Amino acid sequence: MAKSIEYPRASFKVAQEIAAAVDSLGGSCSLEMCAEKMGAKVSGAFNANTNSAIKFGLVNQKSGHLSTSTLYRDIKLAYTDDERRNLLINSFLSPAVFLKLYERFKNKELPIQMLDKMLIKEYEVDENAASRVKKYFIDGARSIGLIDSQNQVIPFETNNSQATDQQEDVPSEVEILEESRGYTPQEIAPTVINLQETDEFAFQITGPGINSKIAIREEEDFLILEAMIKKIKKRFGPIG
């Protein structure tokens, strides 16, 4: 069995452009129609772009047919800039390698100079793609405020200056997917998980300040889901 590629082969910006093109065609279209909309032809490079939009959770694909995802529609219809940014972070950290980098270096300086070598040696990124993947991560993270001007990787909770100690203890898997902060354990409604079967399995988790879809495309995606459920449970305190 071929190894699953855990990183995008195009930038976050390009992935958003692909999703916007599909959306402009009614939210569903053929691969050929999307390429024509973007003034391109269906090719290896264009397939890399669409596959990246899929990895970022913005587009679904079935039998060569593209459609915008629930996550993309949530981003498009976000009520506030904060809500939109939170959803964009959710999208950007969907590829497994990007989430691993974020978790490893949050609150630390990203090792810019050696990052491409690290991607090859530690994250199994193809040697020919490493420099591009490095740029995709850095540029995308900067565009949504996850890296500052000193190349420090910013933990999501620090963007809220009013965060309490309890809120800062919630790991970023949860923070990335929450739409807002500041709920006490008593205010958190039971988590609702809906499972749909398409080309992927998707868990929809909703509650106060949370309305997120977690797409399961490969085994490692379960780590995100399990971590989120585990950390949400901690907000209720010890049982018994």
Description:
This protein is of the alpha+beta class and 240 residues long. The protein has helices spanning 12-24, 31-37, 44-55, 70-76, 81-92, 96-105, 115-123, 130-143, 165-168, 172-177, 221-234; strands at residues 28-30, 59-62, 65-68, 192-197, 201-207, 210-216. The strands form two sheets. A three-stranded antiparallel sheet has the order 1-3-2. A three-stranded antiparallel sheet has the order 4-5-6, covered by helices on one side. Strand 2 (59-62) and strand 3 (65-68) form a beta hairpin. Helix 1 packs across helix 3 (44-55), helix 4 (70-76) runs antiparallel to helix 5 (81-92) and helix 7 (115-123) packs across helix 8 (130-143). The model is unreliable at 158-198 (pLDDT under 50).
List the helices and strands and how they pair.
Blueprint: H1 12-24, E1 28-30, H2 31-37, H3 44-55, E2 59-62, E3 65-68, H4 70-76, H5 81-92, H6 96-105, H7 115-123, H8 130-143, H9 165-168, H10 172-177, E4 192-197, E5 201-207, E6 210-216, H11 221-234
Antiparallel strand pairs: 1-3, 2-3, 4-5, 5-6
Helix pairs in contact: 1-3, 4-5, 7-8
Strands in their spatial order, largest beta sheet:
1-3-2
The major beta sheet can be summarized as:
3 strands, antiparallel
Beta fraction of the residues?
Answer: 5-15%
Q: Multimeric state of these chains?
A: single chain
Poorly predicted sequence stretches spanning 5 or more consecutive residues: 158-198
Euclidean distance between termini CA atoms:
46 Å
Described by the principal axes of the CA atoms, the overall outline is globular
Structural class category: alpha+beta
Q: How many DSSP H or I helices? A: 11
Helix content: 40-55%
N-to-C series of helices and strands: HEHHEEHHHHHHHEEEH
Task: Compute the average pLDDT.
Answer: 78
* Radius of gyration over C-alpha positions, nearest whole angstrom: 18 Å
Number of strands: 6
